[in-house]
Amino acid sequence: MNTSNDTEMYNYDYNSTCDQDPSAQSSDKTMILLALYYMLFLLGLIGNTTVLWVLLRYIKLKTMTDMCLLNLALSDLILAASLPLWAYNSQNLALCKLMTGVYQLGFYSGTLFVTLMSVDRYVAIVHAISAMRVRSLCCGIIASVTIWAVSATAAVPQVIFASLEIDPDDNSSECQPLYPEETQQFWKKLRNFTENTVGLFVCLPIMIFSYVKILFVLSRSRNSKKNRAIKLILAIVCVFVVCWVPYNVTVFLQTLQLFEFLGTCEVSRSMSSAMGFAEIIAVSHCCLNPIIYAFVGEKFRKSLADVLAWCLCRYQNRPTFSRVDMTDKETSNTPVRSDY
């Protein structure tokens, strides 16, 4: 995102012959967007740092769910860390490539880890008998390494083509992907296709399938926490859909522009404005994940309350609060019994 010219993290430039809408470059509008990005950065930083701290220091990593939470928090923290970088109009090519890579890595890994959490819960509930074998810490490590490798691979092309675009009018520069002219359309289509494949055509159907099956099993269960579990599942799906579907739909429509199905200047301006708002909604998911996936879990809440009580006693110079070691039974991370 550039504070002087743009409200998008990337200038997709689908119809370069169209003049920009002057209203889209309003300084007041840009300042509001900057404030939103900094607010999301602070919320994401606080929430995800807290999750990482509690997981590493007090809960430890024992199950695949713990590993998923750790990597999801790390991914969201990476995405949140990229937000203030886009507000800084850097003249440095290395920093331009760095913030492009950080954003892309956080974008892909965050979506994939949310999907992995869905699959983990699906296995734990729908296939409870074989869940212990599949949901081991070793499997969690393998799945996490694979996701990070896939995310890094998907981010590499954008990092390679990230460059400083010079504005001849005021000699300012803007960090944007600059593709070779002869293959420009190919790389733009590939970028959009990759984003849509991950977020819209693969991860979203997997999430919906997993949670529909979970709801079916829970509806036949006599578990006392069934209603709470169902409400949380609906919240997870709704939040993901609200945050990411508008962004992916906008990317899909902009891909149609590349194929000249939607080619008018008015449509191009509308898409550009829509992308700016869709990106804000999408990245806000990194602030909501700690609330949905960690703070609502019984295991995490007990550990967090334990930590806060210990800190409060230290601050008041009272005898330190002795943290009671909770047994695996008391802190079970099985989704039906405790996480919900």
From TrEMBL:
Membrane topology: Multi-pass membrane protein
Keywords: Cell membrane, G-protein coupled receptor, Membrane, Receptor, Transducer, Transmembrane, Transmembrane helix
Any one cellular-component term (Gene Ontology): external side of plasma membrane
One GO-annotated biological process of the protein: calcium-mediated signaling
Cited PROSITE patterns: G_PROTEIN_RECEP_F1_1, G_PROTEIN_RECEP_F1_2
Domain G-protein coupled receptors family 1 profile positions: 47-293
Lineage of the species this protein comes from: Eukaryota, Metazoa, Chordata, Craniata, Vertebrata
Protein name from the UniProt record: G-protein coupled receptors family 1 profile domain-containing protein
Spans through the membrane: 35-56, 68-87, 107-125, 137-161, 198-218, 230-253, 273-296
MF terms (GO), sorted A to Z: C-C chemokine binding; C-C chemokine receptor activity
Subcellular location: Cell membrane
Family, as annotated: Belongs to the G-protein coupled receptor 1 family.
Signal peptide residues on this chain, from the entry's feature table: none
SUPFAM superfamilies: Family A G protein-coupled receptor-like
